[in-house]
Amino acid sequence: MASSVKIAPANSLLLVSDAVGARAPEITRDGSFWSSSTCLAIGCLAFMDGETEVTLGDAKELSLGGAPIFDGLLETPTRNVAVWTVELEPVLGAVVPNQKTRVRIWTNHLIEPDKVAIGLG
């Protein structure tokens, strides 16, 4: 079952990783999505402009239409996926069956999305 929250995260950035943390990807000025094998960083709507709706759940239940901006594997050694702010405040979480989890991410805008769907499996 999918869970959603509306948030205006600091630095307009969300992190997705195993619940015990990870090696964050290098954030550059180009783009609004960055990844490493252990962490995904997703740019959101500028926090001063409002909240971003973030949904986490089974990929079969989620999609904002079109191709995902990311479709790959994330290392999840504790079998727990967490969505965090850059201040390491937990936003959402889910239990997954494997130590590597397929993650698909959809956004409704390439630069400053106000909707982010994170599909697991």
C-alpha termini separation: 13 Å
Class per helix and strand makeup:
mainly beta
Fraction of residues in helix:
under 10%
Task: Domain count, please report it.
Answer: 1
Sheet with the most strands?
A: 5 strands, mixed
% residues in beta strands: over 45%
CATH architecture: Sandwich
The H/E string reads EEEEEEEEEE
Mean pLDDT level: 94
Note the total helix count: 0
Tell the overall outline: globular
Describe this structure in words.
A hairpin with a 7-residue loop joins strand 9 and strand 10. Helix content is 0%, strand content 48%. The protein starts with a strand and ends with a strand. It has 121 residues and is an all-beta fold. The strands form 2 sheets. The protein has a 5-stranded mixed sheet, with no helix packed on it. The protein has a 5-stranded antiparallel sheet with strand order 3-4-2-7-8, with no helix packed on it. The chain has one domain: Substrate Binding Domain Of DNAk, Chain A, domain 1. The model has no long low-confidence stretch (mean pLDDT 94). It contains no helices and 10 strands.
